[in-house]
Amino acid sequence: MKNFQLNIVKAEQFLVNGAVAAYEPQVKAAMETLEKGIGAGNDFLGWLHLPSSITAEHLADLKTAAQVLRENCEVVIVAGIGGSYLGARAVIEALSNTFEWLKAKKENPVIIYAGNNIGEDYLGELTEFLKDKKFGVINISKSGTTTETALAFRLLKKQCEDQRGKEMARKVIVAVTDAKKGAARVTADKEGYKSFIIPDNVGGRFSVLTPVGLLPIAVAGYDIEQLVQGARDMEAQTAMEVPFMENPSAVYAAVRNLLYADGKKIEILVNYQPKLHFMMEWWKQLYGESEGKDGKGIFPASVDFSTDLHSMGQWIQEGERTIFETVISVENADKTVTVPTDEENLDGLNFLAGKRVDEVNKMAELGTQLAHVDGGVPNMRVTIPCLNEYYIGQLIYFFEKACGISGYLLGVNPFNQPGVEAYKKNMFALLGKPGYEEETKAIQAKL
Ligand code: PA5
């Protein structure tokens, strides 16, 4: 089994010969800025050496809290949005049996997500579904004041207390939030919930390896030690002293910035495994919020292949040539499904008989890459041997590190997200939140 690999050959051919190697000084400077903590947003670098600083005691504490939820709940609601949601879901879905939650006898509590939308039907249907369930809640919010999450938590807390009683609710509600401030912290302290702290210096989209991601992942039954180990090994593999062309995060950051400078304004992250759908969502948030500012930034998009080859495939093959692709390729499937022979062969598929379905998938992947490159779409490929905690941990840190480097190469502060506030201000003004009277007046003038 091969290890994590980044292959840039089919992207490099779109660049001037030797352009990636020649970019080393700029990349090294960006890495140094990151490492020395001298760039914009340097108060949010807690993620940089997080994997190597997570202690066995911390992981044990998380596992103990997870066990309490696992023993007392058939359903656990993970309430959070953005960085307080996507990482946990990305990992859990990548590792889960797709049909686990439909099985009559389940090995793990069913994980459901809330607080990531304001859909009344969603919340109405969720509260209906939970009516006869022994459920618990992990309330995740760094600020502790995010409307989507706070709204869902208000409903879930009441329902949990009404259904399971105050004492049991206290046992099965866990908070992951700031050490001191925010409504989630105040409630957790007042009610006596078990709580975990989101470090001040780790922003939401870089927080999957804090309790934000680790607690739900442990509750779902996955090995957080292996996840952290994968990230830790990738931290070493992407360290400052590793030669540039052997450092996958540095090379990925370099190639995407060179392509961007060459007019490739959109990066499409591609998977061939439906389980990776939320990994793409996590990646989009990581790169979108980190780089899309100051009128700059690669637009991060994603597709699930081969599904989307039957929709977005046309655009990618022949649309405007402003895109490049990064494919996440998983070398080995976990299950073995072989195409059966059919005497009548009405579907004409006997040429595939005896082959693994994964082989068909791999040929779809290779055929698509060749077609897209022929069509003018630079391609990078990230390969992991299989979907397990260790390799997902590697993937997470690889993308995080590359994001920090890439943001500095682009010349932005990769660790803030001022643009996210604009909609909130308008929404609060429109809803008449106290303190927003001036904004309400300004908005009314525009309507
Ligand atoms: O990455 C970010 O900072 C954001 O996406 C936040 O994670 C998101 O807005 C949720 O914020 P909070 O954890 O404060 O509820």
Structure description:
- The chain has two domains: 5-38 and 228-417, Rossmann fold (3-Layer(aba) Sandwich), CATH 3.40.50; 50-222, Glucose-6-phosphate isomerase like protein, domain 1 (Rossmann fold).
- It has 18 helices and ten strands.
- It has 447 residues and is α/β, with parallel strands linked by helices.
- The mean pLDDT is 96.
- The protein has helices spanning 9-12, 19-22, 24-36, 50-53, 56-72, 86-95, 120-130, 147-172, 183-191, 211-219, 224-237, 248-261, 277-291, 313-318, 357-374, 389-410, 421-431, 437-446, and strands at 5-7, 75-79, 110-114, 135-141, 173-177, 194-197, 266-271, 299-304, 323-330, 379-384.
- The strands form two sheets. A five-stranded mixed β-sheet has the order 1-10-9-7-8, with helices on both faces.
- 5-phosphoarabinonic acid (PA5) binds at residues 81-84, 141-143, 146, 149, 203-205, 289, 417.
Keywords:
alpha/beta, Rossmann fold, 447 residues, binds 5-phosphoarabinonic acid
How are the SSEs ordered, and which strands pair?
Elements: E1 5-7, H1 9-12, H2 19-22, H3 24-36, H4 50-53, H5 56-72, E2 75-79, H6 86-95, E3 110-114, H7 120-130, E4 135-141, H8 147-172, E5 173-177, H9 183-191, E6 194-197, H10 211-219, H11 224-237, H12 248-261, E7 266-271, H13 277-291, E8 299-304, H14 313-318, E9 323-330, H15 357-374, E10 379-384, H16 389-410, H17 421-431, H18 437-446
Parallel strand pairs: 2-3, 2-4, 4-5, 5-6, 7-8, 7-9, 9-10
Antiparallel strand pairs: 1-10
Bound molecules: 5-phosphoarabinonic acid.
